[in-house]
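Sample entry follows:

:::
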Amino acid sequence: MATNFNMISKAGVSRQLLGFLSVLFLLFSTILRAEELGIKKSPNARVDNLLKGHDADFEQANSTVWTAEWGDVSRDTVTKHSGRQSLKVVFGTDMKSSLKIKVEPGYRYHMSAWGKIKDFQFIKSGAYGCGFGLEQLRDDGTINGNWYDMYAYLIYKEGNTDWFYEEFSWIPKDTTVWLRPGIKVKGEGKSTVWFDDIRIWKEKLPEKKSSMLVNAIENPSCEIIYNGDITPFGYELSDTAGKREDFGKLARATTETASNRGASLKVMAPCSVRSVIGMVYGNEAIARISVKSKGVSGKGGFVRVDLLDADHKLLKSIDVADISGDQEWKTYEKKIELPQTKDTLYAQWVFGINPGGKGTLYFDDLQMMVETTLLPMPARKKNVNVVNVTIDTAKDTGRVFRSPLDAYDHHCADRVYSYSIGTAGPHLEGDSRWFKMRRKLGVNYVRVHNGFDGNSLCEHLKVDGKTKFGWDNGEEGVNFGGTRVNPNNGNKSFPPVCRIKDGKMITDFSSIKYYLDGSVLKGGTKPIFGLEPVPGCLAIENNVKYKPHDMKLWEEFNYRFIKFLVDTYGAEEVKTWIFETGNEPGTEPTFHGSPGRNRVLEDFLEMQDYTIAGCQRALPEIFIAGPSGPPENFVMPMLKHCAEGKNFATGKIGTKLDAISYHGYLGGSVNDLSWRSSEEQIFRYLRYREYFEKKTGRKLELYNTEFAAIYREVTPKNPPEPNYDNHVQAVATLHMANFSHRLGVEHMAFFYASPFYFAPVRNATGFKKSRMQSNTPEFLGEPTMITFHGIFKPVTRIFQMLSWMNGGKELSVQADCEPIFTMAVKDGDTIKLLCYSFDVDPSQKYQTVVNILLNSLPEGTTYDVTRYELSATKANSCYLATQKKLTQAICEKNIPVVDRINKDSELKPENLGNVSVGSGGKLKFSVKVPAFSASMFVLKPVSSTKK
């Protein structure tokens, strides 16, 4: 209970309590120790003091504003900074003000005081100091977080100091409602501290401005292409009557010509194309689009921007260009004033050829540029010669590090290519070594796409390595799914997961169990399981792209599946799994809804409601991540429906949702590793998540369940650049993981460019060699990506490096210039610093001197410094295989060669020697970091001279 500070003496405090407080203050002193500060200039007297009327100068007689939990405190009329008296503390105290200051978001709060010390002695056990602060409180008055975040030193010094001034400031946490002033003093003997003239004021935070605009349009250059390389992800095509059509005859993606990167969208007949819908905000947007035309006549081509409300209803159409004749690539630009609305606002590009028009139009580089106020990794000055890195080992971020790069995507829809590590491995490595490798990489999840296609799931198990297959493009290769045995009956295949017989639904999930037991769970990982596709017997027209013909039957099917999992593996285990309700619904190769395809979003939301209803009937606590990678224009309507819409299945308001699962790739190419668009994509999803939280009070987790650092579509027509499989992609992966982690992405599932190498099959038809194959004719080929030889790519070392940091407390670390970026943790007494060099130009070859400074370490301690480096030549299987002129034939015939390459490409420890901590707790050392390299520095204390 708080008591008037004039009534408690030092003698009333038990030694046990003091001991406990000493431990707390030791923690406080370790985290907040600061340099001794000189006298500062007092704040402007015209600034309003929020303590006005609350005895800020300790002048009020018999005041009860300040109360002490314990301590020898009094008013002193002899020693004071101003006025008639001051506050005097002997030995120690813990005081609070009765004032609670209501927090206003968008402000920084400052607190200042004048102080004086006499005969001040540190407590010999290590707990010492005098300070003041603003305690952060929740709405109910309880402490919001750790108390040591809320105090700062008045002075850090023993002995005597006359009156001095000190001030500190805080930006309250988002969840802080109240601030309460407090004073803490911890000393020994006759330690005496005086406080006077305490002031508290607030300062409006400047609005954060980025140095760049961000593009609200997803897949703006049509680089992500599906369905036979003709369908751009997220775009919709309609004929002149408004009926949705497949891409192909009227319009299609093409690599014939492009304004930006490698692809554009070609329109060949009257029709209209709609881009992805992007959320816009602020006062204005800048719309840009590049267009090329050939022989356009008649009513010609059109380009416009549609502004849409929160329900995607048209608010306004804005004409951007009318196009006719012949012209090379030309960029059209228009500033658009955005309506000021409290609700969400969207924009969408609409373009095509008018009815009666003729000719060909190409569209590329669609931009809807808006200013962002979020920039967690701001652009900094660049100095490739020298960069300084500073680590404050006494300041952590308040969270324990867990690598977001802890999952991969098996993508069994493309299982024959085996281009993700979930569908390969046991072929040449063997089960035990394969699963040991998983643990070594820190892999916790495997994303199981096409989860209800049970026989596809099992095609990579029990391999004979002999069976051949062929593709319609003339390519041929080894099918590692040639032999598998159903343990129930000895057959080579499993029954389908669902059949309709005599009007009744029969389910059999033995194939899924076979896959989970033999591939996912056996390695200690957990599935991110796709509750898709709709089995043919349940789908309209037996088409797995269409929605179920009977939603009640679909709900029952999902109930049976989850009940099967619960009965097989136990409810507590299945609760730890993640379930997705679809994969990229609304895109061409996947879910289309009804045959007419004009209600894809509504059809999906209806199906999702019934999916989740069936799952929850079997396991109410099931974790639902929503659909994986839906078109971005699906996201806000889906969240709105899940938050406040009428559930199709239950009739109640709302649908269970625990996470958002999106697909995001590095926004660049092998020649340009621009990454801001990938970061901006996360910004957009953070805003979507914020909307849901405001509506429901529930915070969704955020997953990127398909990503690759350098994106290439399957079976590229042109051979990839050498750096595609090399250390460059590995460092780009690390950079993507770094900014994703900063923004709060929980899991990232590595997709497409797997951590294993592939090589083309010998004598394959239509095969083109890349430049990298000049000395190694079959190694690293990858145009066909059909066979697998089990060599770990450099990107596996990034998995490892990040997993080594797991469990450590994240430290405050900063590099003062690009191209160096950093992450750091403290694990007990060991410090781990992950330092890497990343440039948007992957051809750079410079080296950067990095000066590393660690603060707040125990003086006199010596640390052993070990470095683990990934670079163009270190921990790089690509480099080693090229040096050895390794071929696919050698890999297939001589497995020990594969083993040796894997062993030789491990991250190897390099001892940099011992470094001692100097005065002030500082430790310094310098290293050279090559462009596109990553180094883990491990600092372990080995001795101490401190007495």
